[in-house]
Amino acid sequence: MSKRVLVPIADDSEEIETSCIQDTLVRFGAEVVVASVKPGGDLVCKMSRGLKVMADVSIDEAVLQSWDLVALPGGMPGAEHLRDCEPLISLLEKQRADGKLYAAMCAAPAIVLASKGLCGDGATCYPAPGLREKMPSPVDEQVVVQGNVVTSQGPGTGLKFAIKLGELLYGAEKAKQIADEMLVSQDS
Fold first, then answer.
1. What is the arithmetic mean of pLDDT over 6-14?
2. Secondary structure (3-state) at 61
3. How many angstroms separate the CA atoms of 163 and 144, rounded?
């Protein structure tokens, strides 16, 4: 059965992370929807390195739907735009309350999740001063799973992050198959 995944983006979200999440989970068979959090329903976001991405829907449309996973890319100040989007924060709080998966990588665990009390001790984020200090007892691991929340460090860990999300949605056997097809080492 197809799982439904939401990937919220903003101006200055990280494009490698966004595409790793979207592309990899589509390979698993997920229905992945990219939602813009820009005001006024503007769907075109200029990413952190200048790439323009057109979202599928606005966040206002997305919050009216049910999601198996909500996965946030990082990027600055994109993560701040995600943090400041009340409909997105309400959706993340609902995911947590319902025991459904939500995830963030790079700056987003510190800027979005930690600032809203949505991750606990032992999560990870981009290992930069100013971000790690915002996290409660962060760890230096590429991908961390804590119940229904998953965190990761940054662009270079994007594929491992996305493979882990796929594993949580579709199982270890499917994750190994997709990782092998994509030439992604699951060691370490």
1. 98
2. helix
3. 12
Tokens of 82: 């995600």
Please give the structure tokens belonging to residue 169: 């949605």
CA distance 98 to 32: 20
pLDDT tens sequence across 80-104:
999 999 999 999 999 999 999 999 9
| Phi, psi dihedrals of residue 71, rounded to the nearest 5° | -125, 125
What tokens does 108 get? Answer: 């987003």
- CA 101/CA 40 separation, integer angstroms: 28
Catalytic hit among 20, 45, 85, 106:
106
Q: Is 20 a catalytic residue?
A: no
Integer Cα distance of 121 and 110 in angstroms: 12
98: burial class by Cβ within 10 Å (0-12, 13-18, 19+)? exposed
Note the pTM of the prediction, 2 decimals. Answer: 0.97
Q: Which of 170, 29, 12, 186 is nearest to 106 (CA)?
A: 12
Q: Name beta bridge partners: 58.
A: 36
pLDDT band at residue 171 under the 50/70/90 scheme:
very high
pLDDT of residue 185: 86
Length of the chain: 188
Query: In this structure, are residues 168 and 145 in contact, taking their beta carbons and an 8 Å threshold?
Result: yes
H or E stretch covering 90: helix 86-97
